[in-house]
User: What shape does this take?
Amino acid sequence: MQKNNKLVSGIICLTIVVIIFGGIGSQMGAANMLNTVMKTAHDLLLNTCFYLMAICVITGALGKLFVEFGVVDMLERILRPMMRPLFNLPGVASLGAVMTFLSDNPAIISLSKDKRFSSYFKKFQFISLTNFGTAFGMGLIVIIFMMGQGFFKEPLIGLFGAFVGCIVSTRLMQYFVLKAYPQYAVENAAEKTEAIAADEHEHEEEKGTFLRTLNSLLDGGKTGVETGLAIIPGVLVISTFVMILTFGASSDGTYTGAAYEGVEFLPWLAQKIDFIFKWLFGFTDPHLIAFPITALGAVGAALSLVPTYVLHGWADGNAIAVFTAIGMCWSGYLSTHTAMLDSLGYRELTSKAIISHTVGGICAALVAHWMFMLITWIF
Assistant: This one.
């Protein structure tokens, strides 16, 4: 029976691959399609992946430096008062927001493994950390990348949109969890322990400021390299495929096998419901819909689309604000939520987390769009 199932799934998989690439190849030509795939991936590796890796190294070093010298603790204290009224989470959850903003979604999991940290949460709050942490994942990288494209106020508007989307996603996830498991409202995520008061830097007195700074920068930079390497597969595989479905032929209307040529399937699809995206996100070009679609799987891959959008003049300030909001809030949650909930021990709640975060991301984009319109109208 198992062999038959594998045979059937193999036939289905092969059929889907033949249909997709057969359809693309029939329009572009098989040789041009293969050349475009390789050249696009190569250009993305050199001009996007290494650029993103450089950002990851710098932000990783900065984040580690902030941890070492207490900046993260200071930010956690500042943000703590808003956690309960906005997110219905204990104050220590703000530390998770800061850490994921400086690094990536899984940082919230390393925190949740700390019994002292998890003891502050009820079970329904603890589970919602998956949504809460994801909404801030790679936030610093996304904002710096957008600023590197020449936009400054728009990423900050997007940050506010992501903040609102996080509230929606976290609260909605808590609602779903309590509806399915009412007892989680009173059950603790872990046994209560003493309040977190231990000195995180227990050997500070043994090191001089110079060594602490140097070690922080080098260790953080090393983490950034690992993050940059982790981004590469998503960018090369997902972005290459999305770009082929997004962009068209060369300027003279022919296919030459050059990088960034394609069949314009996604814009054609978006044009059928163009009015929805114009109202929701304020998109002025159907090509832009590729960004949120790609961000579902990997925000690093989605960022690789932005320079091309800017080059062609498709991305305006509104689009950058929306990209920042939805890129931060979604942050590749389809590829991380299952693993994150599995590590927490609540895999059966994955579908609820995904639904909640889908709604949260759309709300983030909506808020960013209308906030940008309001600010533009005022100023």
The mean pLDDT is 82. The radius of gyration is 22 Å. DSSP finds 19 helices and no strands in the chain. The first helix runs from residue 2 to 28.
